[in-house]
Amino acid sequence: MTRRPDCGVGHVPGAPATLPDRAGPAHRRGVARTVTTLVRVKICVLAGGVGGARFLLGARRLLGLDTESARAGSPHRIDAVVNVGDDAWMHGVRICPDLDTCMYTLGGGIDPERGWGHAGETWNCRDELAAYGVQPDWFGLGDKDLATHLVRTQMLDAGYRLTHVTEALSTRWSPGVRLLPVTDDRCETHVVVTGGTADDGTGAGDAATPGDGPDADAPGPRAIHFQEWWVKHRAQLTPSGFVQVGADAATPTPETLEAIETADLVVVAPSNPVVSVGAILAVPGIRAALRSTPAPVVGLSPVIGGAVLRGMADTCLTAIGVETSATAVARHYGARSGTGLLDGWLVAPGDAPADGSGAVDGVAIREVPLLMTDPDATADMVAAAIDLAGLEVPARTDR
Prior knowledge:
Blueprint: E1 42-47, H1 50-62, H2 68-72, E2 77-82, E3 88-90, E4 93-95, H3 97-106, H4 124-132, H5 143-157, H6 162-173, E5 178-181, E6 188-193, E7 222-225, H7 226-232, E8 239-245, H8 254-262, E9 265-268, H9 277-281, H10 286-292, E10 297-300, E11 303-304, E12 307-308, H11 313-319, H12 326-333, E13 344-347, E14 359-360, E15 363-367, H13 375-388
Parallel strand pairs: 1-2, 1-9, 2-5, 9-10, 10-13, 13-15
Antiparallel strand pairs: 3-4, 6-7, 6-8, 11-12, 14-15
């Protein structure tokens, strides 16, 4: 892959002339760039669950890593730093929804309609637990999925790090992407809800553990686990904020820091900016790593035309006072030329700043189609991120 001296942020009138070069922060002040020829492409992606997994399919397609035979002879690598804020203990096993969604999707085992869980799943264990009256009864574990959680829990109990457990589980799925939990430590997203109950009359649960604790139906402000808010209450309890339980003691894994530091490009996938990417950024040390990496950092908007296509990112953004728009999310992340994280930001056609500046507070903007309809369309999005960063787009071998 070749770094082009013109950076390639053009096609937008008034666009900033350069993005940061791998040589370091001096290039953010407009120092001339040099051409660097790379013998391999190494991309680091910050990813959540469903959206992050689909984005990784496109990155893998672009770099020709779809098959094991292709990977064997390829110098290219994709590292995915994955959110663990959704993780929880349920029925005595450790569940890592975003890691598993990425693993199943890349391994060809995902349920294509739901976007999560196994294809062809059965629910015998869930039904038996319900027959016993075991709580929580609102979170169903599929039989195939349960096998993953059992293996993970056994390995964690034996003293293995979550990073190593994920690597071991991935050998069964051959994802073609190195899946890295952002931290091996507990750093779980809790949702602050203020009074009231969901439309169905159910109350919020205990802040420490997803489920029905002694304060499950207590009124007033309380924090409940993200899984309880999303699965049990279907995000119908209005959030007033989000907290990361355990973040103060969490540290990024060495593998995560290495992936960010040595990447040719860091990409922020179009995942939820608050409870997916935001939960990754909540781990102390991640923001500093993104600001200090010599690689350009380019993000893709999860908001198209003022709306999110899936999930509850709009509700989450509203809770933290951010407008549901592509430019507002760019401002939320901020520019590395200031105190933020981004060098470039891809938005859908029509979502660029109306003033034609091609930038938002120092972040270079480009309009490209952002619908992840299939891996080829998503590969084009990844190619656009590479191009915006001033790198030569790898030649597609499958077209």
